[in-house]
Structure formats: C-alpha cells, structure tokens
Amino acid sequence: MISLRELMTRRDAFTGLTMGNYALARGMAEAGLRVATSYPGSPTPEIGAALLSVPAEERPYYFEFSTNEKVALEIAAGASMNGHLSACFFKSVGLNVAADSLIQLSMMELVGGMVVILGDDPGANSSQNEQDNRHFARMSYIPMLEPATPREAREMFLEAAAISRRLRMPVFLRLTTHVCHARERVDFGPLPEGLPGWEPKFDTKNGPYVPVARTVFPLKEKALRKQEEFGRLMEVSAMNRVFPGPKSPARLGIISAGLPALCAAEAVAAAGAPLDVLKLGCTWPPPADKLCDFMSARDEVFVLEDLDRVLETEIKALAFDRGLKCRIHSRKGPADLMGEMTPPRAAAMLASAWPEHFKAPPARAATEEPAARLPQLCPGCGHRSAFHAIKKALPPGAITVADIGCHSMGFMPPYEMGTVLLSMGHSVSTGAGLALGNSSRKVVSFLGDSTFFHAAMPGIVNAVVQDSDITLVLLENGTTAMTGHQPRAGTGEIGDKIPLPRLLEAMGVRFVRDVDAYKQAEVSAALKEAMDHKGFAVVIARHPCMLKFMREAKAKNPGLKSSRVAVDQSECARHYTCVAEFACPSFVRHDDGSVTVHPELCIGDGSCVQTCPAAAIVREKPGEGK
Amino acid sequence: MAFNIYICGVGGQGIGVLAAALASAAEAAGHRARGCDTHGLAQRHGSVSSHLRLGDDALTPRVPEGRADLVLALERLEGLRGALYALKPGGTLVYYDTVYQPVTVRTGLRAYPSAETVAARVAELGGKAVGVSVDGMADPRMQNAALLGRLAALGLVPGFTREALRSALADTLGGRNLEANLAVFDKAAE
Fold this sequence. Notes:
The complex is a heterodimer.
Chain A: H1 4-9, E1 14-19, H2 20-30, E2 35-38, H3 45-52, E3 62-65, H4 69-81, E4 86-91, H5 94-105, E5 114-120, H6 134-140, E6 144-145, H7 150-167, E7 170-176, H8 177-180, E8 182-188, H9 216-235, E9 241-243, E10 252-257, H10 258-271, E11 275-280, E12 282-284, H11 288-296, E13 300-303, H12 310-321, E14 327-329, H13 343-353, H14 382-393, E15 399-401, H15 427-435, E16 443-448, H16 449-466, E17 471-476, H17 500-506, E18 511-516, H18 520-532, E19 537-542, H19 546-556, E20 564-567, H20 577-582, E21 587-589, E22 595-597, E23 617-620
Parallel strand pairs in A: 2-3, 2-4, 4-5, 5-7, 6-7, 10-11, 10-13, 13-14, 15-16, 16-17, 17-19, 18-19
Antiparallel strand pairs in A: 1-8, 6-12, 9-11, 20-23, 21-22
Chain B: E1 3-10, H1 15-28, E2 33-37, E3 47-54, E4 68-73, H2 76-86, E5 87-96, H3 103-106, H4 115-124, E6 128-132, H5 143-154, H6 162-173, H7 178-189
Helix pairs in contact in B: 1-6, 2-4, 5-6, 5-7, 6-7
C-alpha cells in the first residue's frame, strides 16, 4: 500500500487506491499549490494529514492548522493577493466562522488564485446540523464545483485552481462526507517542475483592495462580471456529464450533481428505466444553456439533490424565464429534505414521479433494534473524571452548557453534563445569557482548550467586562482530540507555549483555579468555590488526552504493556457506581451481577479507583491478571 | 450485480485496516473496488462501519440498506446490528465473537445478545451467521487477521483466495507485527 508521504511526493504519474481527501491533497501538489490552511473538522482533516506527511523542510507548499477557520481563510487570501496559489479547507459549519471575510473575497483581485474547500455533511454524520453551503455560493458570488468521487475531487481541484488563477477569483470546491471518505482507484498526474518563487507580488494597482463607500460598486460589478465569465466556461465544461439511459420514446431525464447524481444513475441502471441523468459539475452559476438544452429535449425531468431546494429553485426559475414546456418534478415534503441520498432513496423519490419505471424498495421487516452503542469518552479520559466530580458538586437546578469537542458527549447518560449547545465557543456567552436576572440557578459552562483559542476568547473578555455570574470549566486536554489530535495553539507543539492560567489572568479573570481532572475531590472543591464566587470564575480541569498519550507512549515503546485495574470480588458490594455512574467503557457487568474489567479496554489510568464506595477497584501491575 | 461487503465494529478496533486489506484484495482479484470508511467519531467506542462494493455497476461508495452479500463484524452485537441493517436474504454474517458492552447493557437497561440469539435473528433474515474466535492473541487488533483468515476458508467472495487475502493483509500492515498477524490468519483459516 502506498504511504501518504509517497502519495504526496512521487514525481511521476501513477495510480493508487485512495480516499477522497488524500486524492484531493495530491491534486493540490499537482496544481503547484503554495499555501494551504485549515482548522480541523470532519470530514476534511485527512487533507491536512496528507499535507503534513511530508517533512516541513521538503514541502513545496506552506501548510498550517490555524486557530480558526476565519484566520485560515484570511491567511490563504493574503497569500493569494501576493501571487501564490492558495487553498483553505474546513467542515461545513466552519464556513460560518470564516463568513465575515469570505463574503468580501469575490471583490478582491486574487492574483495567485484561491480555492475554498468545503466538507458538507448531509446526514449530519459528524456535524451539529446539515447546513447546505450551496447557499453561500450565491450570497458571495463565488462559483462552486461539486465532485462526486475521489477521482473527481482531484480533477476538479485542478480545474478550480486553473480557472481561479486565470480569472483571479475565489472558487468553491464542495465535497460531502462520503466523497471525502470514499475510496477508489485514482489516476494521478506528475508533480510540476519549477514552482514560481516566493517574491511578494502584492500591488494596490490590482485593487483597490479596500471596499468602502464608492469603491464598493466597481468592485461588486467586477465580482458579478467574473461570475458570468465563469458561468460561460461551465457551459462547455466536460465536468458536466450525461449518463445515458436505454433508448426510448419516453423523453424523461434527471438533473443532479455530486453524489446524488451517482445515486440517481445507479437507481436508473438497477431499474432499467429509460432516463438520462445530467450530472452537473458546476452548480453555481448553473450552466443555463446546457440545462435548457437538456430540458427542451425532454417532456419531464426530476431535479434530485440533497438538503435544500437549491438546484430545483434555479432550474424552475430558468424554465420559467425561457418559457420551457418541460414538466419539472422534485422531492416531496420535509423527509426528503433531510439526510443523505442513497440509490434506494433515489429510487423511492423517482417512483413518486414515475411509478411505471421505479418501484419503491421493499421496507425491511421491522425488528427490535439491538442495544444502541453511542460514542463515549475513552477509557482514561480526563473529561469523565471531571464530569463525575462536577456532577457531585452541582446544586439542584444548575444549568450546564456544553461546547463543541469530545466533552459534548457528556450530555448523554449517565453524565447528562452540558445540556445546551450552539456552536464553537458559544458556551461562555450563552451561559452569561442564562445567568441574566437569574439568582436561583447556578450556570456552569464547559469549554475545550482548542475551542478556547478558536472562538471563545471574545466571550470570555465579555464575561470579564460584564462580570457575568457564571463558572467556566475549561477542560484542557492539550489537543484537538475529536478530529484526530491536530495540534492546537499554545501547547508548544507549534509555536511557543501559552499557559492558560496566565492568559486568563491577563484577560482580567480574577478567579482562576487549575486542577488535575483526575483529582476529583480537588475538582469538586474548586467548582464549589468558583460557584460561590460572585461574578465570572474559571476552573481549569486539566489532563492530557489519554488516547493521544497512550498512542505516543506505544509508538515510542512498542512493547509497552499498560497496567490495568481489577475489581476485587471479595470487596465488591455491587453499588455499580463504576458501570452506571462513572461509566468507563472498561467495566463489564455480567449476568450474575458481578463486575469485572475488560482487559482489552482498560489502560490502567486508575481514575476510577477513587469512585468506588466499597474501595473494591484495585490497581494491577503490568503483566498481572490475564 | 455488485458484490457488497458491509464491515462493522466498535470504534478503536481497527476497522480501517480490515477495510483497506479487503479493498486491496478485491483489486488483486480483478474487481473494481469502491468503498468508504467512517471517520471522526470512529475512535470513541461508538458503532463504526465501512463499506466495500465490488463490480462495475456500483457507482456509489456505500452499501445500500439490505443489499450486503457479506457482513463482516469485529464484535458480536455490532455483527447483529450490521446484519439487521445491511444483510440481504441469502447473505452471510461473519463476526469475531468478542463482547464489548455498550452503556445501555452495562447500566442494565438492555440485554446483550447471545451467539444463539444472533444466529436465530440472522436466520430470520434468511441469512447465516458464523462466529470466529482464536485463542492466545497478543493484541486484540489481530482479530482483524482472524476474520480475514476465516473469510479465506469460507470462500464467500469471488477471487478472495487464501493467498490473495494473506498478501493483502501483509501489504496493508507493512511491517507491523506481520508474523504474529499471519499466524492468527493461518490459525483462523484452518
């Protein structure tokens, strides 16, 4: 199997079985990309893993994980203004964070070219919503290409980069989760010889770059004209393709894009239905003439897409404008506007228009669902230890506010810690709002340390200035754990250390306690003290991410045997605190009522030992037990 | 028709290695392979799945509900869940017979299925369940190798011979514990 580093550095053309994110990263290298930036978020962080697989001194490009998506986008934009081809990539909701600067980009002369890569998430596989970022293309006048496969992710990046550089404008490349993570064989091209140098080409003659007052209109006109020019190129682009169905007098067709288009093509082939599928490569601006040609040659079409009625609205407006007679079918009510397309779903939707050609697939016989297995905090996670201690210390009626990160899993039983969640960094300010006029219920907000730097600092300053009467528990694990341990600012992995207690004090926080999350009595005591403090108070509950810690320890010492805990059966009084309240996945409850420790899961961290009322959890030395 | 393989397990069991080895074996056997993995929450002990589809008519990467010819699972409860979601009538579930209790079982809210229950419920779907276990494994992630070994012996996938799966496993692992993994593979293939 080809290593990531070889994928990124092999100079000649080759072919390899790989996933969408990696194919895209290789495409970046083939395009001669100079600057890439990101904030990690599913489904795109593996693009960063591929870029980082080349040692820094050998990279023909600069890459950083920035503190947040807005920072990432601005760095890529600045680099492009200097003449360097750049790209930034993030998760779907990441675009909201970057939006303030993104919305200005189409007015800027991006001399080097710039591609904004989005990982949208129909089906909410790993996101807090299913937001449809195709709307952003319209609002920002930025064209959008939509690959459906790893092969297309690479091809369309090359296309987006080339046009972006030529027209000096930003281009969106919108992937979805199962394009990012799909695996197939991809043909790669050679790496370019002789990349342009790093001399800064910024020149106000290419601008103006300051859109205020009177300059706004010429800049906006330029953006609109470039968008039209892009649209003309798309009318003849090979990225739009037709999957022809069997010859028939039926004159029916489907219009779609991205993975839904392939779902349609698969459903059509399986049904042997007499339909052609027009798969658009570019969805903004939609290729109007191409669409009209397709519709004029047909009596009926079905617009098939995921999420919002974006293509449908455009296509219906176009057909109205041009006076087309073609009947336009589309999806039905709310159920069809949620979740991700599959070939059977496509067949069921198409059956609503053409029952003679498609049968809704037979429903699976309803059976009793087996016990659910939701994601959990890992064995040894400091968040579990902190939650267990915090839950004990909270007064009745307390309101707990979660933020984004591993700790958001605390909302599930048995912890039920963190019962409101909006977005990255919201917890301090939402908590401050919950505390307004509220003297009867304590408010405790949680926050991870990567999110602290990402978006929480303005909220913290606000809480300091307004002296909001809330307690912030900063769950510091020293990394961006949820998305695969990308380094965060301030740990010393990248740049200098920024110690959180000193930073908080410098921001004006008067009450700061810093405790090891494993020391539950200290966590409880610090929390009580913080809640008693009138005004804004911060408790840092600190413990390294143990998944990362154990991986690094095993990488350094492959033979490492971790120690374990055991349940002393003669002491166990069957309180079940370990399985039902502390709830480390390592504890196993047997049919006879006994509890043991799963040897494959326990890492021997011992954070559970203090939780047993009967003191029946004991440490084993490495190699003891089975 | 595409041959569909639905692979599932518990986050942290190393399902990615299994999926990569199967994809590599599929190509070696001359199939066009398409698939996809779950990422992100994969490490957090939740249910995880991976998909592999062999054949030219599979345009999309995920195995559609109820269309799997083979469900390969790294854990018993996940095997049952995977079969209920994906297995088609006449298909086979091959699972490594180990038990990872989810929270609802540990807290006494739900029962964990016995091997007999799994066999009975898969039979209701018109399928067959095969449990695999190998004694004396140094690392639980070698359960991947055991599943591949048994798969080779069962001969369920066209072109997935013992040699093909063995070399795909070697190719995917590189040097990592290769001999121990191959020993587990061979033991499970007996």
